[in-house]
Please model this.
Amino acid sequence: MELSGVLSLLLGVCVSCLLLLALARRNLPPGPTPLPFVGNILQLDTKALAKSILKFRDVYGPVFTLQLGSERAVVLCGYAAVKEALVDHGKEFGGRGNMATAARITKGFGLLFANGERWRQLRRFSLAALQEFGPGQRSVEERIQEEAHRLVEEFRKTKGSPFDPTFFLSRSASSVICSIVFGQRFDYADESFLDLLAKTNQVFVRLSSTWGQLYGMFSWVMRFLPGAHKQIFRDLEDINSFILERIKAKQASLDRDNPQDFIDCFLLQMEKEILNPATEFHLRNLVLTAFNLFFVGTELVSSTLRYGLLVLLKHPEVEEKMTQEIDRVIGRSRVPAVEDRSRMPYTDAVIPRDPEVQGYAIPKGTEVFPVLSSVLRDPGRFRDPERFDPGRFLDEQGRLKANEAFMPFSTGKRSCVGQELARMELFIFLTAILQNFTLKSPVPPRDIDLTPRGGGFAHVPPCYQLCAVPRGGGSHAEEEPPKDRPQGTAGASKGPNPAT
Model:
């Protein structure tokens, strides 16, 4: 075939693809014209994906369509659109979309990426289990306080020299979720534990990297190509193997009259439903649900703390106000407690808490991307949203006020099952650090860059160092360190009621 014939054929294929794409999108919200095969990828910055997606909002409004490789997605921006989808039409938008990386590992099992009846059963059970071994149980608050004490001691060993806080924070956050899931914490010097944390952190980073994003958009070809995305799956397999080993050990020593943690409760439910051929309580769901809880409880909590400390380094005036409130309410002679939050509105404001969409009919099965960062920066809900200002969460009397647009744990049916535990950890850890140390940056605050690494799966904090300079005066860190409980005593003495 002559060159002109080849070019004509290619042109015909491209035109046909464009027509097919146009027909497929005819009932969807408007959006930029996609190219064959790559869609709108070339119009996006993979290093700042969320930010580059939002530029289309100015052209097409808060709801628009993007073609991300082979995946077509409807993007929701701002509080009104996200609330309408996830809350007002929570039933229709309650499914979990396809995430190629997760699909390859989980194949739809486990809590985080399940749908339908499997998701309903696992979520109901997990919420009940976390109530038994999570917030509201005095022992778990004490466990967080003990980890906060250890964290302060580790910071103190740096003697005010610059250090990277990444693994200091991930060890502490992980120890809390390990006590709930596995019934034990791991020693900070445990090599297998440190290796597990390193792999968990790298998975989190690589998922948001260009390699991770490309795999998500072009998995059909990327799975055959070399690259950093291959390491994601090797690390995920190692983490799941670690969890499976712990589950098998607990199966061999299970005390049926005295379950001590999430895995024990799940194993007991597996025994109850052993004759049910349609049961969702089996080993594969246990491994992957335990992995979901471990990953989120380790990396997302610790990365939030890392970002929090970085923001305080850039805004020392906010740190100073928090420290004054901590000294006034708690002092330096005891560890922070959850009950202190109600008397510390400024500190709490630094860690705030709490189908048709916009007239478009969204066809069943369409991927929907609610961009939560656009909700958290919605100028209609937050004054001067690009500026760090805890005061926007306080009323005229200095009391904490609710804002429905603040949804860091998402909202609706898919909101995070561990959000209360995460809030407890963030408050106690951050307060304990500021109670004992003044944070200093090795570089001038004005030179600190808050831009996240990557921009896909989540906002990964940039690498940085800080100096934790001990504050003068008394400190609870100088007291006798808390005694470890025997392994497996982190929760209540009974299992959850799956019917709740």
